[in-house]
Amino acid sequence: MIRQITLTETMRAALRKGVEDHKFSHGHALVLAGGPGRGGAARLAARAALRAGAGLVTLACPQVSLAENAAHLTAVMLTALPDAYTLRGMFADTRLNALCLGPGLGAPRALEMVPGALWGRRATVLDADALTAFEHDPGPLFNALHDKVVLTPHPGEFRHLFPDLARAWEAGEMSKIEATSRAAVRAGCTVLLKGHETVIASAAEEIAVHSATGEMAAPWLATAGSGDVLAGLIVGLMARGHSPFEAACSGTWLHAAAARQFGPGLIAEDLPDALPALFRDIGL
Ligand SMILES: NC(=O)C1=CN([C@@H]2O[C@H](COP(=O)(O)OP(=O)(O)OC[C@H]3O[C@@H](n4cnc5c(N)ncnc54)[C@H](O)[C@@H]3O)[C@@H](O)[C@H]2O)[C@@H](O)CC1
Ligand SMILES: Nc1ncnc2c1ncn2[C@@H]1O[C@H](COP(=O)(O)OP(=O)(O)O)[C@@H](O)[C@H]1O
C-alpha cells in the first residue's frame, strides 16, 4: 500500500516532548562538516536537527574549520574530527545515536568518513557528497549500508548510484515510486528520492509519497541548501528514536509545511527557524 504523507495524530504524538524528559531522552546527533569555507550546508543540517528536537547536536569538522564554525554556532556544539579513526572512537559513547554525512563534506572526506560512520551502525542520513563521492565505485558504499540508513538523493544523485533505475524512470518505463522502491531493496535501507513529489521507500517495501502540489505546493523549497535542511530534520528525528522510514516521512512533511508557513522569499536558513511557529500551529 502506498501511503500519502499528511499530518496524522501518530506523527503529532511522536513529535511531542514528554514533560519529564531530559536532553538525553531525545538523543545526540552528530553532523559531519567539511573544510574551510564549505561549512554552511552542515550548519544548516545541524540547526535543523536541533529544531526538530534532538536533545544535543554536535558538528564535527576538521581542526582548520573550527574557528569558522565557532563564529556561527551557539546551541549546536562543535568538535574537531580529523579522521575516521577518531570517528570510530566516538562510538564508545553510546548516547551518540544518529549521524548525518554529506552536506558540504567534500568527496575526499566523504570517501574516508562514510565507511567509518556506517561501521558504527547508528541511524545515519547520507546526502549530497556522501552519495556523489561513490559515483565511480559504489561497491564500498553498498557493502557497508545497513537498515538504519536513509539515503536522500535528488534525481541527479539518484542517477549516480542507481543508473539503470534512473534510466528506466526517465524513459517512462518505470514510475518514480517503482524506481525508489527497487533502489531501497537493492541498497537494504530507506531511500528518499526528492522533488516536488518526494517518494520514500524502505528495504521492507514500505512506500510513502509526499506531493507538494495544489494546496501543499512549496515551490520556494527550490533554493540552495533546502536539501541540507531536510537531511538535518531526518537525523534530528532519528536521534529522537523515530525509525528511519518514519523520520523520512515526518521530516518531509515538516520540511514542506515549514516552507509553506514561511512563504515566498524563503531561503534555506529560514526553514529551521520556521519550525517553532509550525509546532505551535499543529498543537505540540
Ligand atoms: N549553503 C551551502 O553551503 C550549500 C552547500 N551545498 C553543498 O555543495 C556541495 C555540492 O552541491 P551542488 O549543489 O553543487 O551539487 P549537486 O549535486 O546538487 O548538483 C550537481 C549536479 O547535479 C544535478 N542535479 C542537481 N539537482 C538535480 C535535480 N533535482 N534533478 C536532476 N539533476 C540534478 C545537476 O546536473 C547539477 O549540476 C554539496 O556538498 C552540498 O551539500 C549545496 O547544498 C547548496 C547550499
Ligand atoms: N518545486 C519544488 N516543490 C517542492 N519541493 C521542492 C521543489 N524543488 C525542490 N524541492 C525540495 O527541496 C529540496 C532540495 O534539495 P537538493 O536538491 O538536495 O538541494 P540542495 O543540495 O541545494 O540542498 C528537496 O527536499 C526537494 O524535494
UniProtKB/TrEMBL annotation:
It is an enzyme of class 4 (lyase). Belongs to the NnrD/CARKD family. One of its GO terms (molecular function) is ATP binding. Coiled coil: none annotated. Homotetramer. This is ADP-dependent (S)-NAD(P)H-hydrate dehydratase. The gene is nnrD. Catalyzes the dehydration of the S-form of NAD(P)HX at the expense of ADP, which is converted to AMP. Together with NAD(P)HX epimerase, which catalyzes the epimerization of the S- and R-forms, the enzyme allows the repair of both epimers of NAD(P)HX, a damaged form of NAD(P)H that is a result of enzymatic or heat-dependent hydration. Keywords: ATP-binding, Kinase, Lyase, NAD, NADP, Nucleotide-binding, Transferase.
